[in-house]
């Protein structure tokens, strides 16, 4: 049966309306951060060493829980508030996975398969490692290219002058604005970010809907049965094309009951980090060089780590299938 325009509209609207509430929430959180978070406040709290700072960035999702659609606008505001680029990248990649809602939904999706804790541990552990490693690579890129990796709307504003004058004690603190004015500022910032990101979200949804019309889940599962060593890249491709929300993708992964655990981990780790709509949204925040760097790091690490996981399970005689004994 050939796909019809109704199939396209159904898939497009399902992807768009799944993402829309989180973009709105992300824009609202971004407006609050812009209005109330002092410039460079977070930077002062971070360690001076790069690795611990990036590791903290990777777990910021526990404080600022957000799915991958909304986290882009929040990350952009944190970047403009002085959070280092490497920490922002780690937060952007790991935040949609390492937060309480997604951890709980992953456990619920797989608890009846007797691999709930195992899936949660693998998903969170690999996401943390990949986000930290990518953050370190981006840090080395930033030392070389600086803010040329960012779009003008994302580049942090220049630091204010630090000259000390006799009357500087009172001039440093801005006048406190009325609450209605501050709410107006939050609304204006949130609306600006929402409109700015939605254009690229819609375009990404169009591409994802077209892809989902011609690449079905049944075809991917058939490939995994006939070509076992293609199962991980096949599920990575499906994660990029399906553009699922990180709070719901675990239930889709759990529906592939005959698929190896390593392929499901690849699907659950890559999807919130890199899919069609996210790539389009990244173009509003990052220059092409940085997008290529992020995509290359994430793809290589997910493929390598999940293939290694697959081989380890095979060598130890673990099945990696729901309801079957694995570790131990």
Would you kindly provide a written description of the structure presented here, covering whatever features stand out?
44% of the residues are buried. The protein has one domain (5-156, 182-316). It has 15 helices and no strands. It is mainly alpha-helical. α4 packs antiparallel against α5 and α10 packs antiparallel against α11. It has helices at 5-36, 41-45, 50-58, 68-80, 85-94, 100-111, 116-145, 168-171, 179-214, 217-226, 231-242, 249-254, 261-270, 276-282, 288-316. It is globular.
Features:
328 residues, mainly alpha, 0% strand
List the helices and strands and how they pair.
Blueprint: H1 5-36, H2 41-45, H3 50-58, H4 68-80, H5 85-94, H6 100-111, H7 116-145, H8 168-171, H9 179-214, H10 217-226, H11 231-242, H12 249-254, H13 261-270, H14 276-282, H15 288-316
Mean pLDDT value: 79
Could you spell the SSE succession in H and E letters?
HHHHHHHHHHHHHHH
How many separate helices? 15
Regarding quaternary structure, what we see is single chain
Instruction: State the separation between the terminal residues, measured CA to CA.
Output: 46 Å
Low-pLDDT windows of residues? 168-173
What would you call the shape? Answer: globular
Radius of gyration: 21 Å
Biggest β-sheet: count, sense, barrel?
A: none
Structural classification? mainly alpha
Question: What proportion of the residues form beta strands (DSSP E)?
Answer: under 5%
**Share of helix, binned:** 55-70%
Tally of discrete structural domains:
1
Could you give the count of β-strands? Answer: 0
């Amino acid at each position: 049966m050939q796909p019809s325009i109704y199939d396209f509209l159904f898939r497009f609207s399902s992807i768009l309306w799944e993402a829309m509430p989180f973009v709105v929430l992300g824009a609202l959180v971004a407006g609050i951060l812009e209005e109330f978070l002092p410039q460079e406040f977070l930077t002062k709290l971070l360690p001076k060493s790069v690795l611990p700072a990036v590791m903290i960035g990777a777990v910021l999702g526990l404080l600022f829980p957000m799915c991958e659609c909304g986290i882009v606008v929040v990350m952009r505001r944190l970047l403009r508030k002085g959070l280092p680029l490497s920490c922002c990248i780690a937060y952007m990649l790991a935040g949609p996975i390492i937060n309480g809602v997604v951890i709980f939904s992953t456990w619920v999706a797989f608890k009846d398969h007797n691999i709930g804790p195992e899936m949660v541990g693998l998903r969170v552990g690999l996401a943390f490692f990949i986000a930290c490693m990518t953050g370190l690579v981006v840090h080395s890129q930033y030392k070389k290219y600086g803010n040329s990796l960012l779009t003008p709307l994302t580049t942090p504003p220049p630091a204010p002058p630090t000259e000390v004058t006799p009357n500087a004690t009172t001039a440093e603190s801005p006048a406190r604005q009325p609450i209605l004015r501050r709410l107006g500022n939050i609304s204006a910032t949130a609306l600006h970010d929402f409109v700015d990101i939605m254009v690229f979200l819609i375009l990404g949804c169009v591409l994802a809907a077209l892809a989902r019309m011609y690449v079905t889940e049944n075809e991917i599962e058939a490939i995994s049965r006939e070509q076992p060593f293609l199962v991980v890249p096949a599920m990575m491709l499906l994660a990029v094309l399906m553009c699922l929300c990180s709070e719901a993708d675990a239930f889709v992964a759990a529906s592939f009951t005959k698929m190896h655990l390593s392929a499901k981990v690849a699907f659950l780790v890559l999807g919130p980090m890199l899919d069609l709509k996210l790539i389009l949204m990244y173009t509003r925040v990052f220059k092409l060089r940085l997008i290529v760097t992020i995509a290359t790091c994430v793809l290589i690490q997910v493929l390598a780590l999940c293939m290694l996981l697959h081989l380890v399970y095979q060598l130890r005689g673990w099945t990696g299938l729901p309801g079957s004994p694995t570790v131990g």
